[in-house]
Design goal:
globular; alpha/beta; 7 helices
């Protein structure tokens, strides 16, 4: 059976991480189900251009609208091998932490937690205050994995593209999927 991953994109800065994540998963022949928040539209356009959402959609196997609450990914009966939200805004993180399923993105994440599936959040905020840290701790205690977009400096990255690839590959690796040569491993 083909592996199936849900890729969520929220309104935080870092649309390039979502794009690179989708590219790597596609190269690995993994079925991807893309959902973004309403807040993601502006940040994706700002960072990837007017066609930013179309760029993401072109790399996904299936795409859902933010308010499509009857989508398959809103149900525990939908088989998924995990979900990654990259980038993950503090609003989305808080929605996940407190089970506030106001849109399909946070509902799909809530389903991952209730079904005990892998959920990886790549938070894009700095510095962090106590509320952010409490929400991260709450998600972690529920079974989610917080994976800040921290580059491995030992990887001898030469440019921003190398850094994006390494960070995206690490998020994919956290899902339990080997990203192959896209991730530099410590030797």
């Amino acid at each position: 059976m083909t592996k199936r991953i849900i890729v969520g994109v929220s309104g935080a800065s870092g649309a390039q991480l979502a794009l690179k994540t989708l590219e790597i998963l596609r190269k690995l022949d993994i079925e991807t189900h893309l959902v973004h928040s309403r807040g993601a539209i502006a940040s994706v356009r700002h960072e990837l251009g007017e066609d930013g959402i179309a760029q993401l959609t072109a790399r996904a196997s299936v795409t859902y609208a933010p308010d499509e609450m009857t989508a398959p990914i809103a149900s525990g009966s939908f088989h998924s091998d995990g979900m990654i939200i990259t980038p993950c805004s503090m609003r989305t993180l808080s929605g996940v932490a407190y089970s506030f399923s106001e849109n399909l993105l946070t509902r799909a994440a809530d389903v991952m937690l209730k079904e005990r599936c892998k959920l990886v959040l790549v938070p894009r905020e700095t510095p962090l205050h106590e509320g952010h840290l409490e929400a991260m701790l709450k998600v972690t205690r529920m079974g989610g994995i917080i994976t800040p977009p921290v580059p491995p400096f030992y990887a001898n990255m030469q440019n921003a593209e190398d850094m994006l690839r390494e960070i995206a590959a690490r998020g994919i690796n956290t899902l339990g999927i080997d990203p192959g040569g896209d991730m530099t491993r410590w030797k």
